[in-house]
Design a protein that fits this description.
476 residues, 32% helix, DNA-binding, ECO RV Endonuclease, Chain A, 4-stranded mixed β-sheet, alpha+beta, 2 domains, 17 helices
Length: 476
Amino acid sequence: MQHWSVLESMSHLKIMEGNVKGGIDMKYETAEQLLIKAKEAHNKSFGEIDCNNRLRKSQKGVFGHVIEESHFGYEINSNSEPDFKDLGIELKVTPIKQNRNGSYSAKERLVLNIINYMEEYDKTFETSSFWKKNQKLLLMFYKWLPKVEPRELKIVQSILYEYPEEDLIIIKRDWEKLSRYINEGKAHLLTEKEFEYLSPCTKGANKNSMREQPFNVLKAKQRAYSFKSSYLTSIIREMVESEPLTYFSTKQELKQKTIEQLLEEKFEPYIGMTRDEMAAKLGVTITPKHKSFIPSLISTLLGVKGTKLDSIAEFEKANIQFKTVRLQPNGKPKESMSFVNIDFHEVAQESWEDSFLYNYFSETKFLFVVFQYDEQENLYFKGIQLWQMLEQTIETDLFAYWAEIRRVVNAGIKLEKKKRGISNNLPGSKFNGKFHVRPKGKDSNDKVSLPDGQMITKQCYWFNADYVANLLKGEE
DNA sequence: GCATGATCATGC
DNA sequence: GCATGATCATGC
């Protein structure tokens, strides 16, 4: 199946314009015509497109309506059929954002139709409302920019999307898991975390929007099918960068096992070996302090030697980042774990929902590759652990950490010259026992500016070593 | 001995 | 030149 049906050949465009530019009743006879029409919206802002003045107030979800009505001349429907019924194509208008390093990501998850527990329970994947409505998608991306009026935002790219076979295996398994929840009368216990690509996100006017479920008197939160933003990001990356992703698993393996199980199986044979034995067995050359040693170990072990970890499909699609952990004989890491450097201007302005911390830790799964030193300082491979921060930790400890950094930055960081270096009053390792702020740069002269004009040695988000030790034990 | 400030090395 | 994984080193 060809899943990228991006039409770059515009040779038909002239011929088609005559048919396509019509009144409200126009029809799009082929997917290609539809895509050509979609591309006419590129580089136009919503303000330019919106002829019914729907953007008066910036209510959510209105972007899709503007495109449907004003650009395609279709009436808005919210029934169970795809938007372009005859073609079986559902239209989705969704934001992308540019990251600090220049790459693009989905700004948010892609919300699809609401799950009616009362109707979905006796369906198969093929007869489900998800599949009926979202089998083929016309994705139109607009570029989100902070603090820019909705009417100024522009459509930048459109694609027709059909699921690659490998992804469909996982999407189907996610659907089946969801279906089991409903059939076992557990719809009220659904959470997003345990789903891989397709997950049931909450949707409603507020968190009190509840729905009946067929096999339990307890009402369940109203939820909609959604693609996790990491999955959507992988679609965007593949669209922008032409570099294809490499799968380490075969379709057969994906059918039988989750990515987590597959990873565990692949790493299992090496548990208990020293790092050098692992390297020898895999034919990876160790150069001491060679930064790329662990990544090349991982890619070799997964059978995709030479592939950058960013290009491994399963990692990209599930947004899995790896981290090496070196434990001391007592089970505690010697060092704290660092993440990205703090952009203080960003922190000072952003809301919690737009913050780097919130987004990064609610979307990222970590593959911890754990080594442990014995008393003789030999380094042994202990195993792997796939981990994601608990929602509760995000809402309490991580939020407090973010709020404190923000408070201190906005009040003006107190910098104090000490015997050794310059100290500050950003949250330290005793703040809440989990996270702290610490410098990370080339040296103490490697500085960035603060919103109040002061300069500070580059600072970084860190996990306390104790927190890492605890989460590896499953106690967060 | 831990907390915290500093810095090195590598890869892009 | 910069980001990032890794680690050092001082002083309380």
